[in-house]
Amino acid sequence: MSEHKHEIEKTGAVSHIPSLFLGLLVLTIFLAAIFCYQVDSTETAVLTTFGKISGIKEAGLHFKWPYPIQKVIKFDNRLRCFAGSSGKIEETYTADAKNLIISTYCLYKIERPDVLYKNVGTFISAEDRLNSLVRSVRNAIVGKYKFDEFINTDPKKMKISEIEKEILAGVKDSALKDYGIAVEEIGFKQVAVPEKTSEKVFERMKEERAIVAQHYRSQGENISKQIINEADNKKKLKIADAEAEAKRIRAEGDAKAASYYSVFKQDPALADFLRKLDSLRKIMPKKTTLILNTRYPPFDLLNMDDPAMGLKAPLKNDDAPGTSK
């Protein structure tokens, strides 16, 4: 009887082993959840002990004492784009008392989560403080520049990039020191003119463009005058050269004509005959039929019976060009 009882007790003990292992497993998971925590690769954790910062933890699995002894606060360490929590688009004044509507953006990441947690507590509070810092620095720097350096038809006169760099320099050190935030870039999302001043701005821009247009027009007129003067000078030089060449040719022709005239003086009848013959060549082309009175020069040359011509035989067709064949 005792042996049977012993076997029953042994079997019961064996049947409780899986339950024991399951209990131990649940206890291990529970203790791990209480005493361990994991930090993702995109996060940085602040570990506090009795409310005081005791360490900064990077990505991985870490040990901690359960709350309220220790507490873990995680912050996203990725680059973020922040356009402002309040006053995203607001009106400000330039150095020459002109109104501008401006909005900015800010690229930042949490560099010192311990400073952020210690000084402002939460991520939302940090962005509110950053928003106030950017607005105050931006308005102060915008007030140092003139309206023309923001909006201008000449890109060389605009200083938007310089203003952005100056705002970044004014925000960067304070944001990192006071809030643990590393500001990488600050830029303008919008730079506009209020409706009440836009008409004046457009009128002034038109006047500036008109001045520039008049300047170019004056330059064009001066260049045109120079071109015309150069062309006139070249024209006068060419005319002078042509007149000189004409005088030279005329002088050569007169010299040759003088030699011919001396021959004509020796035989006036021959000279008269040659002049009439030359006139006929010019007046009468080939294969021309004329009905005229041959008593009038130079057509009297065709009248071979005229005793004044001093010719006894009629001219051949080849000798009197222009006669009808």
CATH superfamily of the largest domain: Band 7 domain
Structural class: alpha+beta
Instruction: Estimate the global geometry from the Cα principal axes.
Output: rod-shaped
Secondary structure: helix percent: 40-55%
Poorly predicted parts:
309-325
- The CATH topology name of the largest domain reads Tetrahydropterin Synthase, Chain A
Distance between the termini: 173 Å
N-to-C series of helices and strands: HHEEEEEEEEHHHEHH
Topology, element by element:
Blueprint: H1 2-15, H2 17-35, E1 36-39, E2 43-49, E3 52-57, E4 60-63, E5 70-76, E6 80-82, E7 90-93, E8 99-110, H3 113-119, H4 123-142, H5 160-179, E9 181-192, H6 195-266, H7 268-283
Helix pairs in contact: 4-5, 6-7
In short:
The protein is α+β, with helices and mostly antiparallel strands.
